[in-house]
Design brief:
heterodimer; A: mainly alpha; MetI-like fold; 2 domains; globular; B: alpha/beta; Rossmann fold; 8-stranded mixed beta sheet; 4-stranded antiparallel beta sheet; 12 helices; 12 strands
């Protein structure tokens, strides 16, 4: 286990380096002039040159990268936005909670939907519930989240007026006037984004869980359990579920990592100031420090959730040893 | 009254392609302490017969007819609670592939304890004690340590011992062993068979040995049923079957068995494939592969008739007695001649 953690840490470090390097390289391959953009329209060339120098954009690419690494290691700083001059850390600090709120709420919602439906339709294949579940799955998979989000906003927010049309509210109460906050408001504003995220994934996970449970039900050791005289609920809980969750855990870990890098469509449709929306904005403005900051966080999320998956895997299946 | 009585059992699987008649009218009796060998090729219905007896076929996609009585009690319409009570407690089962028949994520001890706790009102410590004791009975060294291992830490032969321990742990009256040695290497096979024999002597359980290996039958069984195409085609005491088999399929099975006491250039083989149970052949199911087929074989299913001058020896064949005995005598003479020339 110790060896596993050490190896994983080295691997994470390596991934960070590669991911940030690639971001730098791509950034400089794209022909753009962030300094000119930052300076605004109709500025004199001297001012652009001055800004260029101030942002270190006049240095060779490897020196710029080195400066970034140095600031990160020496000062724990991700640098400052080219566009508004704010520390990237502050920007990330504001946006991560938004994306995390959407992602974790949505993931919990789709697991709550797909686990029971998946298991029941595996146990009763071809039943009415299984068939209607499959219709739901097909619709869910076919409908893009942008479309689902827009339809939900139109029907539920606009026509029925049950939920707000967009905007994010902090989970923790703040006492600033004019800023909405608190768990109630937070959930109220997030309910549609959660449903939007859950529709497609719930469908996918229902299928996945159904397939895995059905496959496990036909394993020889499940037959052994029946032959011992175990009841159907005991067979399901003790012998089927744990064995059928291996693949689900893997995919869930990968999904969590990926989603935390930004749920772009949902954030944009619902006007949520999250990582995905910011990443698109920053890329459009050639705001390199912000892009690198978000890429690093996304890498971190993928690494952390892969680590959790590996540990869970070893716990679920004793044949796998963490070395 | 026999311990297990099966009468006119039919099992049909309803598939997308049609109805598969896996078992068609099988009847037999099993007495206490008896060892019954059930022989046949893959797809002859031998495993399905006993899965049906145990109620382990999927009832949603399967039609079952006939009667299965355990100790006089009808099992085919028994409640699932009653069946759970009988499975593992009264009738234990050992499966073919020990590599996949144990749950990979549970410790050996847990799996044995589960079998104890399902049927006995004992505490965990007692269940564990019995688990270790049962591992000792099947001759697993250092049983008290190995009880905490996972199945993947055991070899195939060791796992089959665990399966046997698990089937025996509640001292059932019947043990159904579905090809218990097929997946094992030859030396391990011999050990497992010896172990089963020893345990049967100690516990007095009746054993049903399902196999395609006539050597296993010769070693263990008192009676033999030969199955083909979902039916019993010949049944006899084990010695009678080897001395005077009465129908061509059994001849083929015996001829395809290598023997150390005879020299033959080449083993006999049964030509063709086992019949499709989706569209079984008309008449006698064996007629497309039989070397002695005539018109009647294609039209009419032979009854399970008693052989002349024997008890409990019955067979399905349209050939008349004189003809069958002449063919079998010629076959054994040919083998003896081969022996003579080799000597």
């Amino acid at each position: 286990m110790t060896y596993f953690i050490i190896r994983r840490t080295f691997w994470a470090f390596f991934l960070f380096v590669v991911a940030t390097m690639i971001t730098y390289v791509i950034f400089f391959v794209v022909p753009a002039n962030p300094a000119a953009l930052a300076a605004g329209k109709a500025t004199k060339p001297e001012i652009v040159a001055h800004i260029k120098h101030a942002l270190h954009l006049d240095l060779p690419i490897y020196q710029q990268y080195w400066l970034f690494v140095w600031n990160l290691v020496r000062h724990g700083s991700f640098g400052y936005s080219f566009v508004n001059g704010l520390p990237v850390r502050t920007t990330l600090g504001q946006e991560i909670p938004v994306t995390a709120s959407i992602v974790f709420g949505g993931v919990i919602l789709y697991l709550v939907i797909s686990i029971p439906i998946g298991i029941i339709s595996a146990l009763r294949p071809r039943s009415a519930l299984d068939r209607s579940g499959m219709v739901f799955v097909l619709v869910g998979i076919s409908a893009p989240s942008v479309w689902v989000g827009l339809i939900l906003i139109y029907l539920i927010s606009f026509k029925l007026g049950w939920t707000p049309i967009g905007d994010y509210c902090n989970l923790l109460p703040t006492h600033q006037t004019g800023v909405c906050s608190g768990p109630g408001e937070w959930a109220y504003h997030l309910i549609l984004p959660w449903i939007t995220l859950a529709v497609g994934s719930a469908a996918l996970y229902t299928r996945l869980i159904r397939a895995n449970v059905m496959e496990t039900m036909s394993e020889d050791y499940v037959r052994t359990a029946w032959a011992k005289g175990a009841s159907s609920s005991r067979v399901l809980v003790q012998h089927v579920l744990r064995n059928s969750m291996l693949q689900v855990v893997t995919i869930l870990g990968m999904d969590l990592g990926l989603l935390l890098g930004g749920v772009v469509f949902i954030e944009i449709v619902f006007g949520m100031p999250g990582l995905g929306q910011q990443l698109v904005l920053a890329a459009e403005r050639f705001d390199l420090p912000v892009v690198v900051g978000i890429v690093m966080f996304a890498t971190f999320a993928v690494i952390i959730f892969n680590f959790i998956v590996d540990v869970l895997y070893a716990w679920l299946d004793p044949r796998i040893r963490l070395t | 009254m026999a311990l297990l009585e099966v009468e006119n059992l039919h099992t049909r699987f309803l598939t997308d392609d049609g109805v598969v008649k896996a078992v068609s009218g099988v009847s037999f009796k099993l007495d206490r302490g008896q060892t019954l060998g059930v022989v046949g090729e893959s797809g002859s219905g031998k495993s399905v017969t006993f899965l049906t007896v145990m109620g382990l076929v999927d009832r949603r996609s399967t039609e079952v007819e006939g009667s299965v009585r355990y100790d006089g009690e009808e099992l085919l319409n028994a409640s699932s609670a009653r069946l759970q009570n009988i499975r593992g407690r009264r009738i234990g089962m050992i499966f073919q592939d020990p590599m996949t028949s144990l749950n990979p994520v549970k410790k050996i001890g847990w799996q044995l304890e589960e079998a104890v706790l399902l049927h006995n009102d004992v505490n965990h410590a007692e269940a564990r004690r019995r688990a270790i004791q049962s591992l000792e009975e099947v001759e697993i060294p250092r049983a008290d340590a190995r009880v905490d291992d996972y199945p993947h830490q055991f070899s195939g032969g060791m796992r089959q011992r665990v399966m046997i321990a698990m089937a025996l742990i509640n001292q059932p009256e019947i043990i159904i062993a579905d090809e218990p040695t097929t997946a094992l290497d030859v030396t391990t096979q011999a050990q497992i068979l010896r172990l089963m024999k020893k345990l049967q002597d100690e516990h007095g359980a009746a054993i049903v040995m399902i196999t395609h290996d006539l050597g296993v039958v010769a070693e263990l069984a008192d009676d033999v049923k030969v199955m083909y195409g979902g039916r019993i085609v010949e049944e006899a005491l084990v010695d009678d079957l080897f001395v005077q088999p009465e129908m061509p399929y059994t001849w083929g099975l015996l001829g395809s068995m290598p023997r150390l006491d005879q020299v033959s250039a080449r083993l006999e083989q049964i030509p063709g494939q086992p019949p499709s149970l989706l569209r079984p052949p008309t008449g006698c199911a064996f007629h497309p592969r039989c070397g002695y087929t005539f018109d009647k074989c294609r039209e009419e299913l032979p009854e399970l008739a008693a052989a002349p001058d024997t008890v409990d020896h019955r067979y399905r064949c349209h050939l008349d007695d004189a003809e069958r005995h002449r063919i079998w005598a010629a076959k054994t003479a040919a083998v003896s001649a081969g022996e003579g020339s080799a000597a």
